[in-house]
Amino acid sequence: MANPSYPLYLAPMEDVTDIGFRLLCKRFGAAMVYTEFVSAEALVRSVKSTMDKLTISDDERPVGIQIYGKDPEAMVEAARIVEESRPDVIDINFGCPVKKVAGKGAGAGMLRNIPLMLDITRRVVKAVDHTPVTVKTRLGWDQESIIIDELAEMLQDCGIQALTIHGRTRAQMYTGKADWTPIARVKANPRIHIPIIGNGDITTPEEAYEAFQTSKVDAVMVGRATFGRPWVFKEMADYIRRQTGACPSDTLSPAPLNLDDKIDILKEQLRINIERTDERRGILHTRRHLAATPLFKGIPDFRPTRIEMLRAEKADELIAVIERCRELLHRLQRDDSTGEA
């Protein structure tokens, strides 16, 4: 299903990209997926909840494990621990903007300490034997310090094998609009020979196609648009195929998924998560997707139902809420088709 000429990647996201979700995104066309980001300090201390994030499946390959931290020794040791899980890529997070990470000097906080960022990158590259090291970062700390053009070259010189650029500064957090112009500029730099992956505000098939066309990046990474919507990769890949003529019309992917298909996928996500963990954790990992999915946006006065989803503690309770939503959405569709008020 994935188009090798226009690869779409699932962004690493805390409390989102657990293994069940990654497997579904892979099925629907994600060319590469990433784990939730992993604290180097917690790995070194063998914190169980953090170690659990290193569990990957051959069915989701290629898969990257992303680490973050500000201490070079801890980052080196964490990279060695991660390599034992045999990921296809070890990614270093220099882009997370949240206060508890960037405010302590890790993630996007590294954009204020470039010498340390480069030192960590060089040392991690040297520390692992067989696994490519990549980096994900932002344009700069704020609008007055857009440094990605020079930084991309410096990171490449450290030995990384690919660079993902989110088109915002740390100061922007997730507000405003991602700027893909600097991303395109880095990709066009004749001194850059590693793959450049673009990230930021890719929410529709049209935006994914436009990002490839205008920036010429090697891959597009999709983040928040995947919440409760693992099939978004299929929608994007199908649209890109139609626009590029990448395959004859009679071999395009099957018809778009309908409402029942999508609800069944969300129920499958719940089942996978419960099977791979337990009922409590499986529900915790799944219900945030259920609360965020665009499927239920059209339900009038959805807030009480959303709260019920978030409070469900048993699988059968959660499934009952989902089935009520299915029935209501079908009723709304019938009303629309008959023109009833």
Essential attributes:
globular; 9 strands; 9-stranded parallel β-sheet; alpha/beta; 341 residues
Descriptive overview:
With 341 residues, this protein is an alpha/beta fold. The protein is built from 14 helices and nine strands. It has helices at residues 19-27, 40-44, 48-51, 72-83, 99-102, 114-127, 148-157, 181-188, 205-215, 232-244, 259-276, 279-292, 303-311, 315-338; strands spanning 8-10, 33-34, 38-39, 63-68, 89-94, 133-138, 163-166, 196-199, 219-222. Strands 1, 2, 3, 4, 5, 6, 7, 8 and 9 form a nine-stranded parallel beta sheet that branches. The longest helix has 24 residues, at 315-338. Mean pLDDT is 91; it is low at 247-252.
Outline the fold blueprint.
Layout: E1 8-10, H1 19-27, E2 33-34, E3 38-39, H2 40-44, H3 48-51, E4 63-68, H4 72-83, E5 89-94, H5 99-102, H6 114-127, E6 133-138, H7 148-157, E7 163-166, H8 181-188, E8 196-199, H9 205-215, E9 219-222, H10 232-244, H11 259-276, H12 279-292, H13 303-311, H14 315-338
Parallel strand pairs: 1-9, 2-4, 3-4, 4-5, 5-6, 6-7, 7-8, 8-9
Helix pairs in contact: 1-11, 4-6, 9-10, 11-12, 11-14, 12-13
Structure in a nutshell:
The chain is of the alpha/beta class and 341 residues long. It has helices at residues 19-27, 40-44, 48-51, 72-83, 99-102, 114-127, 148-157, 181-188, 205-215, 232-244, 259-276, 279-292, 303-311, 315-338, and strands at 8-10, 33-34, 38-39, 63-68, 89-94, 133-138, 163-166, 196-199, 219-222. Strands 1, 2, 3, 4, 5, 6, 7, 8 and 9 form a 9-stranded parallel sheet that branches.
